[in-house]
Amino acid sequence: MHLLHAASELHPYSKTGGLADMVGALAQSLARAGHVVEVVTPLYRGIRERFPAIRRASWRFDIRLGSSVVSGEFWRLDPEPGLTLWFVDQPGFYDRPGLYNEHQVDYPDNSARFTFFSKAAFLLARHLPQRVDLVQCHDWQTGLLPILIQHARVAAGWDAAPRTLFTIHNLAYQGWFPAADWALTNLPGSWFHLESALHYYQWNCLKGGLALSDALATVSPNYAREICTPEYGCGLDGLLRRREYELTGILNGVDYGEWNTTANPLLPHPYTADDLSGKTLNKADLIDELGLEPLDEVPLLVNISRLTDQKGADLQLAALEELLAAGNQFQFALLGSGSPGLQDAYADLARRYPDRVAATIGFDSGLAQRMEAGADFFLMPSRFEPCGLNQLYSLRYGTVPIVRATGGLNDSVVDPRENLERATGIKFQEPSAAALANAIRKGLSLYPRPDLLSHFRKNGMRADFSWDRQARLYVELYDHILHGV
Ligand code: ADP
Fold first, then answer.
1. From the CA of 59, how far away is ligand 1's center (Å)?
2. Can the peptide bond before residue 12 be classed as cis, meaning omega within 30 degrees of 0?
3. Under 8 Å CB-to-CB from 411, ≥6 apart: which residues?
4. What is the pLDDT of residue 235?
5. N or C: which end of the chain has fewer CB within 10 A?
6. How far is CA 462 from CA 59, 379, 413, in A?
7. Is the CB of 445 under 6 A from ligand 1?
8. Does ligand 1 have an atom closer than 6 angstroms to the CB of 18?
């Protein structure tokens, strides 16, 4: 199959979250399975310097954005057989400090930036020498692309147009723009209506992609069910219910080449499920690195996350306050950034409990690895969680996840009440600080029982969430879309 992925972030070139990890790993797995895979993504600031092997593709183009014409250029990298990466170069749009925003404020021209990106992706879909069978679009930034393809199919008689699959990584981010910005698409006004991207008098990029692509996917089976309900549907549940039978949930996988405990240059002490002594050494190093008090037999809880309501960062703060005030014996380390109020609140907690709590505000992939390896428990109290990756990394790292039973967290963690034999973590239901505190107390009572704790750890470390398996599910889906099988 000849596949084109369009995504606004791609690990290891650019990343703000799980989208980047998913697209990077899926594309690689598909190429290794023998498919011809292309990925198109913006050329953000610093990528070329960090990856000097990226070359000019000698492909310049002019794109109409309303009444203006903006020129751009493709750069390319062929990192392994069967895989080609296309970087869209437009310095005015992408040579900036952030991907989507700065200081929590969205760039005011995001509609133009991602219209330009979708139009550049369209050029590839249309003009690559070998016909593309299927275009997989990821999240709102590519919401225009299925519409451009559908328009070319219908209005310009593009009979060989690829099929389109739209993947939702997070329904809460929809790309809302003033209706007037639709002019940037240069599509007829008659294509902007309630059955496409028009939503409450505005242009909803995600909605357009969901409405006009041939098929839909999201990143876990449970989230696929949840988003068809008003509670999780973010205002698009009606549309999703109408397309429920064309919506497939496939859990993300883990790139075990990068996230492993045995051959990982980012981890000081390797370890395995059968010999966890290296994990104990990683924990001691981490406690030292974070400036926490070295304490014997005290569990270390961690969280690595965007500090947002979605991730339950506020619930976590309240639960930790309660447990610390009550004198429970544990240490906690946070790595994250997001809402300034929450950043300050975590920094304040760390100031008040300097021996017990560490808060690192920022984004640090190396520290994220060391925290996964050194921790005993990983907290994910998400209000909703399309897939979640950190619980999957935690499982492989023998770090017991404590998660709210939602989205992909519910699909990937086994609570002892569901199956003691296969238990890997602790789940709770209510999105409240009290329910989280209760689940943490369960973890604290598990910690002094080494046999039971190691049972959880070993189950988690042996669970297989590899991309090869999940990529096969995508190939089955592509086959179904292309051939109806
Ligand atoms: P989301 O995509 O909603 O942010 P996921 O759990 O799917 O959440 O993926 C988050 C990814 O980003 C993981 O790879 C995680 O390790 C990483 N990550 C999140 N915050 C940070 C941070 N502050 N520093 C380093 N890595 C982070």
1. 34
2. yes
3. 220, 221, 222, 251
4. 97
5. C
6. 46, 20, 13
7. no
8. yes
* Topology annotation, domain 2-253+468-483: Rossmann fold (3.40.50)
- Of 450, 448, 463, 451, residue with least CA distance to 394: 463
Residue from 459, 471, 279 nearest 369 by CA: 279
Site to probe by mutation for ligand 1, drawn from 100, 255, 306 as the one with most ligand atoms within 8 Å of Cβ, is: 306
**Strand partners of residue 306:** 337
**Which atom, in ligand 1's list, is nearest to the CA of 310?**
3
Of 71, 49, 78, 178, give the one whose Cα is nearest residue 123: 71
Is the pLDDT confidence value at 42 over 90? yes
**For the segment 303-351, what is each residue's pLDDT rounded down to a tens digit?**
999 999 999 999 999 999 999 999 999 999 999 999 999 999 999 999 9
Contact 99, 19 (CB under 8 A): no
User: What is the atom index within ligand 1 of the atom nearest the CA of 337?
Assistant: 23
Which ligand 1 atom is nearest residue 387's CA? 7
Percentage, residues of the chain above pLDDT 90: 98
State residue 462's pLDDT score. 96
Helix (H) or strand (E) holding 134: strand 134-138
pLDDT higher than 80, residue 166: yes
From atom 19 of ligand 1, which residue's Cα is the shortest distance away? 305
Q: What is the C-alpha to C-alpha distance for residues 309 and 339, in angstroms, rounded to an integer?
A: 9
Residue 96 C-alpha to ligand 1 middle, in angstroms?
Answer: 21
> Can you tell me the distance from the alpha carbon of 327 to that of 322, in angstroms, rounded to the nearest whole number?
9
Note the pLDDT of residue 104: 85
Averaged pLDDT, 410-428: 98
The CB of 54 under 6 Å from ligand 1? The reply is no
The CA angle 186-478-28, to the nearest 5 degrees, is 90
Cβ atoms of residues 41 and 54 within 8 Å: no
Q: Give domain limits for the chain.
A: 2-253+468-483, 277-464
Record: fold of 277-464:
Rossmann fold (3.40.50)
Judge contact between 42 and 10, C-beta under 8 A.
no
Supply 179's token pair. Answer: 């209706």
